[in-house]
User: What shape does this take?
Amino acid sequence: MKKSIFFLLTMMFAALLAACSSGEQEELHINMNYEAMEEMEHVNHSSSGELPKGLKEAVNPSFKVGSKAIMHTDHMEGMNGAEATIVGAFDTTVYAISYTPETSGEQVENHKWIVHEEIQDPGEEPYQAGEEVTVEADHMEGLKGAVATVDSAEQTTVYMVDYTSTTDGKQVKNHKWITESELSVN
Assistant: This one.
């Protein structure tokens, strides 16, 4: 997601610079920065910590609640290399999905992650790649109610974590979700 936003902003900025005189460039640059900041406000790294119905705590997680781990993932800016405090550990099926947000028409590819219990009427069996589901998760704007295609599914332990972003220093609370394979011992 961050790559597509960066690419889009870069292309818009280049086109506008080429089309404008020097006096207009400064004003457009300021407006574009403001628009980029507004766009990023829709990405909500923190959550209330409320858990979906039916999600079960992990019996023997590799990372215990209260322990620290290093994140090795970049599905959100500022995560890779950040130290995480484990807030919750849960055994479930985790999905990467592609969907069109309910709030915009721009397709999101390979969003990581939602859990089985965040799917509308999930049933007992995990979904397979290529199946369509309706999402109940709300940890991203426009995610709740979206019809999504499952890109991948994995039975694993997922974690809710607190961390400080490595890019802007902001505190993130109750981030959902990090898989066990995206964490290492601190």
Q: What stands out?
A: Confidence is low (pLDDT under 50) at residues 4-44. The radius of gyration is 18 Å. Residues 56-185 form a domain with the SH3 type barrels. fold (CATH 2.30.30.1210). The longest helix spans residues 22-41.
